[in-house]
Amino acid sequence: MRYVRFIFEGKKHLGAREGDKIRILGDASLESLLAQGADLETHASGKTGGQLVSEQDVTFLPVLERPTKIFCIGLNYADHTKESKYEQPTYPTIFPRYHTSLVGHGQPIVRPKVSDSLDYEGEMAVVLKKGGRHIAKADALDCVGGYALFNDGSVREYQFLTPQWTVGKNFDATGGFGPELVTPSEVPPGGRGLQLETRLNGKVVQSANTETMIFDVPTLISVISDAISLEPGDVIVTGTPSGIGWAREPKLLMHAGDVCEVSLTGFAPLRNPIVDEGAQGQG
């Protein structure tokens, strides 16, 4: 099952993809359904009464409106760690993102007026349907409600002002999230073996297989739960491979007029134009 959130005729809706159309399911958010214990594998089945609309007629929203928590994982691909000139950590590098930084598919990622160092990071995200503490790796995939694409847009100048990366990772409207939540039945266990790519203006700038993540999805869920209570609607953004613009010479950063696209095998791509803060048409 593939779920999307969008605006149609001025109202927010939850929908399910049916071929090249979207069936409106109602106005509930995915996180509210997850909190109620809904089974997303079957929730949309049989709901044939909702209006079918064309993707071209909707404005996509982030797949979750207000995720309970967003955990981002840094340095989870060895080639990216090397290009970033860090030692490879033996424990996951975890930092938060906040819902105010999120934008949907097709909506602009905003380059802030205070910096010109906006960089791309294509990633796979995991959305939890249940949580808890001290989750065993063997049980971790039972907690997964679905997978989505993420562009962890990073304002590098601010990211590296301090040893903590949080500010540079949380400028408003810098994190693309979507366009769809794909349930586990349509994805290999833990999202392994999928080709992850980022394109800037049509040119491939990142390409890696999720098989090469240092810490896989079960490990991330288990390790985080040792310290923090996980909940339905939590998101884990699993890290980016090499090829970031900041590590290139000369640097390849995003500017107004650019288009950045993240793709993953079997998923609809996540595509966002870049605009300057305050520009007409900014989301």
TrEMBL record:
The keyword Flavoprotein does not apply. Keywords: Hydrolase, Metal-binding. Gene3D superfamilies: Fumarylacetoacetase-like, C-terminal domain. One of its GO terms (biological process) is carboxylic acid metabolic process. The keyword Metal-binding applies. Pfam families: FAA_hydrolase. InterPro entries: FAH, Fumarylacetoacetase-like_C, Fumarylacetoacetase_C_sf. SUPFAM superfamilies: FAH. Its cofactor is Mg(2+). Residues 69-275 form the Fumarylacetoacetase-like C-terminal domain. GO terms for molecular function: hydrolase activity; isomerase activity; metal ion binding. PANTHER family: FUMARYLACETOACETATE HYDROLASE DOMAIN-CONTAINING PROTEIN 2A (PTHR42796:SF4), FUMARYLACETOACETATE HYDROLASE DOMAIN-CONTAINING PROTEIN 2A-RELATED (PTHR42796). Belongs to the FAH family. This is 5-oxopent-3-ene-1,2,5-tricarboxylate decarboxylase. It comes from Candidimonas nitroreducens.
